[in-house]
Amino acid sequence: SSVTCNSPIPSSQYLHDIPSWQSQNFSCTGSPAIHTIRNSLGKGLGVFATRAIEPGMVIFHEAPAILIHPPEFRDGVGYPLSGIAQLIQSAFDALSADRKAEVMSLTAHYTSAEKASPNRDELVPIFRSNAYNSGQQIGLYPKIARINHGCRPNTSYLWNARLGKQVVYASRRIEEGEELSISYIPLLHTHEEREKRLDQYGFKCTCEACALEKDEKDASDQRRKDIRQAFTDFNSHLTLTVPQSKSGKKRAQEKADASLQLVKIVEEEELADYYAQIYRIAAISHAKVEAWPAAAQFALKSYQIYLMADEQSEQTIEMQMLTSSFIESWNNHLRNKAMQKD
Ligand SMILES: C[S@@+](CC[C@H](N)C(=O)[O-])C[C@H]1O[C@@H](n2cnc3c(N)ncnc32)[C@H](O)[C@@H]1O
């Protein structure tokens, strides 16, 4: 995605009051690259922004070099890699020579057993150190694979099932020269738990969330635990029915208030991987107390995130329908109120 120009960019900007690129037959095609790969201190290679990137901007849209559907997932442990080595190898064997070279150029972390092995396999460690889980599948995306990990990352990703592409987008503003970061692991875990999970990548995270002083780190750990618990509590009874009883209404109001609190802490903790889900929870929780403007605004925020990856995914369509329905309910409410006045 780099710019190609038919002649060098003129060094003198203005020639007889005419911008020099207009006075010559000058044109460029392609979009300016917004990132570059270079060394990142203590982390090997990394991806850096070459200009400021606004939140919501799609940075990568990449098809997997290798995509596998492992048979069995063990929660908290992951996939038994021995069982899937064959799947990885078969997918790799089917690649072109260039694509194979691109995969083999990626960085791998080897376990001590792998290091000691006389004829060590390189493909599985490369896959383990670079691949992403998206639902029931694991994909290796050679360009995205250069992004280093952060526990409060500035990018997040979604899988576009229709196009078969991984979409990486900016979850907050990224300044020119800033390194892109992404999370390799689920972030609703304490610092200690995250450290254990990152072990398979062979590094200890020194990101701003991990480098906090003890008190602040404890507070961040507690917030992450609270968020995880709140997700469980909300998801178990997230329906759109508006309660009729007084006690039901009271409970729904408490839930709506709690959903606002949840939005606040997820945003404070900058856990962008969860934004779309918490906005959906807040939207539905507000619809249950017929707080339509808030419900519509949260539904729209969730919709906008899902839309970046795929305009036709189930989630995008659900949030689009909820947004429209909440706006319609708000209009009906205003119309009824106006009629009551007449
Ligand atoms: C998916 S690759 C990322 C790109 C890699 N730095 C490279 O040079 O190709 C994962 C590897 O990068 C390094 N890495 C990623 N995030 C890191 C971090 N936050 N701190 C230190 N090393 C990191 C580790 O060696 C890890 O096994």
TrEMBL record:
Q: Where is the SET domain?
A: 32-185
Q: Sorted alphabetically, which Pfam families does this protein's record hold? A: SET (PF00856)
The source's superkingdom equals: Eukaryota
* Membrane-spanning residues: none
Question: Whose protein is this, by species?
Answer: Melanomma pulvis-pyrius CBS 109.77
What keywords were assigned to this record?
Signal
| Descriptive protein name | SET domain-containing protein
Q: Which Gene3D superfamilies match?
A: SET domain (2.170.270.10), Tetratricopeptide repeat domain (1.25.40.10)
Q: Does the keyword Metal-binding apply?
A: no
